[in-house]
Design a protein that fits this description.
elongated; two-stranded antiparallel ribbon; alpha+beta; ph1033 like fold; 8 strands; six-stranded mixed sheet; 353 residues
């Protein structure tokens, strides 16, 4: 079999490989006799080591003297004079070797174990917020008993209900009409007054629950000093509020009709003024937790112009006004007796002679 010929490409690559940088360096290190000089022996005669080669051969550069202080980095050391050296030595001899008390946690001496403190009581936790209330030694309950109101309302056997109704005593023009109505206006009325203008459904429902003979507080509202000023009586139960059907009235309701009037009125009569006005601030002061007026509806629902009052609340407000409960009951009974006498006299005058 004839020998294979080398391709032209292979011969070209072989020739070019001779000219690589590594081979060129190797060829340059060859001497005239053809021997290769070892790269591990530098020209200085020192054994080749790793890292940066030495600049000067050993022995050609004098080594620094080791007798004096070595040159360090940073600020040079201060050379003391003989007098300063003697003063420093004297200060060191007279200095107290007791360790100074430092700040923070004390240093723990090696080889000494700190004994753990034995707790004698319940373990306390350093918590955040309000401190824990300590329990009494005898284990008694520390809860406070509920405050019992000192006021005991008188017995009320009248069977009537009590209410509170608000009106504005100061002038206010609404659609060209003055809506002012005070206790004095009610006192000067010659006939029962219709309590109209109520446009709240809750207040309307309360007015529908009113019965003839019920009593109501007259309350001055939307003024400089609001509060309870007098007492009036419901003399006629609810009926249609004609003001809601009148287009010229300030409280006209276009949705109301004769078939569906929506709003009602009750007729009231003046009975008396209170000896002292019970202001709104006084009512609030006696409406705190545990006090008799805590559940007063007019304070809980302040937007209602008509609200209910319990018998206990009624008598308590009278007491705040300085009205004696017994005297007020006698006065009310006397008014009823006078009305009955007037009715009898009218019947007698109608009889034929």
């Amino acid at each position: 079999m004839p020998p294979k010929r080398k391709s032209a490409r292979a011969s070209t690559m072989a020739d070019s490989s001779v000219g690589t940088p590594s081979k060129r360096v190797r060829n340059s290190l060859s001497d005239a006799s053809g021997e290769i000089v070892s790269e591990s022996t530098p020209k200085t005669g020192d054994k080749r080591k790793r890292g940066r080669p030495r600049k000067f051969p050993e022995g050609t550069f004098p080594k620094p003297s080791t007798d004096g202080p070595k040159r360090g980095r940073g600020r040079p050391r201060k050379v003391l004079s003989p007098a300063e050296t003697a003063a420093a030595a004297k200060k060191a001899a007279t200095a107290d070797n007791t360790p100074k008390k430092g700040r923070g946690r004390p240093r723990k001496e090696p080889g000494t174990a700190t004994p753990k403190a034995t707790p004698t009581g319940p373990k306390k936790k350093d918590g955040r917020g309000r401190p824990r209330k300590s329990l009494p030694a005898n284990g008694a309950d520390t809860k406070k008993e509920a405050a019992v109101p000192s006021y005991i309302p008188p017995k009320d056997d009248s069977g009537r209900s009590y209410w509170l109704m608000k009106a504005e005593p100061e002038s206010r023009i609404e659609k060209g009409v003055d809506v002012k109505f005070s206790i004095d206006d009610l006192a000067s009325a010659e006939k029962p007054e219709a309590w109209d203008g109520v446009r709240n459904h809750v207040a309307r429902n309360l007015m529908c629950d009113m019965k003839k003979g019920d009593y109501a507080f007259f309350y001055h509202s939307n003024c400089k000093t609001p509060g309870v000023v007098g007492v009036m009586e419901i003399v006629q139960e609810h009926s249609t509020d004609e003001s809601a059907l009148d287009p010229n009235h300030p409280y006209h309701d276009p949705k109301a009709s004769r078939e569906n009037p929506k709003w009602v009125v009750v007729h009231v009569e003046f009975r008396r003024k209170l000896k002292k006005q019970v202001t709104l601030n006084e009512l609030k002061a006696h409406a705190e937790a545990g006090k008799p007026l805590e559940e007063l509806q007019t304070l809980k629902q302040s937007r209602l112009s008509v609200s209910s009052v319990t018998s206990a609340q009624w008598h308590y407000i009278l007491q705040l006004a300085g009205d004696d409960t017994e005297d007020s009951t006698k006065t009310e009974s006397k008014v009823e007796e006078d009305e009955d006498m007037d009715a009898e006299n009218e019947e007698d005058t109608e009889l034929p002679q």
